[in-house]
Amino acid sequence: MRIRYRIDGILQEKYLLPRNVHDAVVSRIKILSGMKIDEKRVPQDGRFFFSHDGNDVDLRISTLPSTYGEKVVMRLLQKSIKTPTLPDLGLRGSALKNLMTAIERPHGIIIVCGPTGSGKTTTLYSVLGIVATPKVNVVTIEDPVEYQMKGVNQVQVNVQAGLTFASALRSFLRQDPNIIMVGEIRDQETADLAVNAALTGHLVFSTLHTNDASGVPPRLLDMGVEPFLLTSALNCVVGQRVLRRVCKNCEQEIDIPAEQLDDIKTTLGPIYEMILDKWKKDNKPLKVMKPVGCEKCNSSGYYGRIAIYEVMPITEKIAKLIVSKASAGDIQKLAMEEGMLTMKQDGYVKVLEGVTTVEEVLRVAQN
Q: Is the peptide bond before 65 cis (omega within 30 degrees of 0)?
């Protein structure tokens, strides 16, 4: 029986227990989670809570019947965690400025996109931490509610009771909201309701599963949203991934390998020259950090995580491309011409700043 922890996005094996204790351990977890212990043929979901050092921890449990017994995944959510600021997450420069400009508008949609586990919800909570003041009414529909926020009305999806993203959105519009957060846009009905809410004077935040920011408008058009409505409602799209930070306790400064330097130069283009000029003014050598491994980072060489972003404001030119149903590639090309840094470029800037490594950037952001 293998027990692994996912630390900073990577599974690490912690314990190997004898096979004969497997059933007892799984049964104990099922009892705590309110599951049927005698049902081993179908997947089950459950949850339970515990307190650690005065903090409430919520565990989401999922079981799956496999060839040699049931597999269990336990997801830990710390309820009272402090919401990080956007710069803490890794947003900076023009990307941060463009997102803040979109947040300050009184209505419209801001969408954060990326695969599962890329930190989208954390970014949205950080944004809510900025806008959720006593002067505005903020409501959210989430699946599940991951963190509890003061001053925010948080609703959890309950499909069995008929409470879905779409049905909650309809009810929200009768609750006099200023700001609405929809955990995820999954279907045409939710997309249409979110667009209509934005057009009727609400600020809407949501997430979508696309690979990058430029893929969001085509995905929403594929869902059936009218192009002219989408361009009127959509303020900004944020693409993101999370990668590991180099452990500060054991990092080692090295020269950039030639093949990596060529890739960095090609990817960053003129941005590389700007960084190089700044380094020359500061009399800094062109070096990067190498992960070594120590007791603090469990010999991985990495400790903690940071996000890489691309922020695409919907400008007049991009709106025209959306109306003409242009491809994601065409939209990205125009956004880059207008100054957008791609996730890979943002990652390489963080490599040159000594925050992470080229290998990490390629692991999460290589197309």
A: no
Q: Token digits for 335?
A: 């956004």
Do the Cβ atoms of 271 and 336 come closer than 8 Å? no
Of 137, 144, 150, 146, whose CA–CA distance to 165 is shortest? 144
Cα within 13 Å of Cα(171), Cβ side: 14
- Give me the count of residues in the chain: 367
Residue 195 near residue 225 (C-beta atoms within 8 A): yes
What are the φ and ψ backbone dihedral angles of 119, each rounded to 5 degrees? 85, 15
Instruction: Name which of 148, 140, 139, 145 is nearest 176 in CA terms.
Output: 139
Yes or no: say if 250 and 267 are a contact pair by the CB < 8 Å rule: no
Q: Are 60 and 144 in contact (CB under 8 A)?
A: yes
Is residue 92 classed as helix, strand or coil in its secondary structure? coil
Report the share of the chain in percent with pLDDT over 70.
99
Q: In 3-state terms, the chain is what percent helix, strand and coil (to 5)?
A: 40, 30, 35
On the CB side of 17, CA atoms within 13 Å amount to 12
Terminal C-alpha separation, the chain: 36
List Cβ neighbours of 107 (8 Å cut-off, separation of 6 or more): 198, 199, 200, 201, 202, 203
Euclidean distance between CA atoms 98 and 119, whole angstroms: 19
Q: Examine the pLDDT at 367 and tell me if it is beyond 70.
A: no
Of residues 277 and 87, more confidence is placed in 87
- Tens digits of residue pLDDT in 259-312: 899 999 999 999 888 888 887 777 777 789 999 999 999 899 999 999 999 999
Quote the CA–CA distance of 198 and 49 in Å, as a whole number. Answer: 36
Structure tokens at 301: 């060489």
Separation of alpha carbons 313 and 310, rounded Å: 10
Q: How many CA atoms lie within 13 A of 255 on its CB side?
A: 3
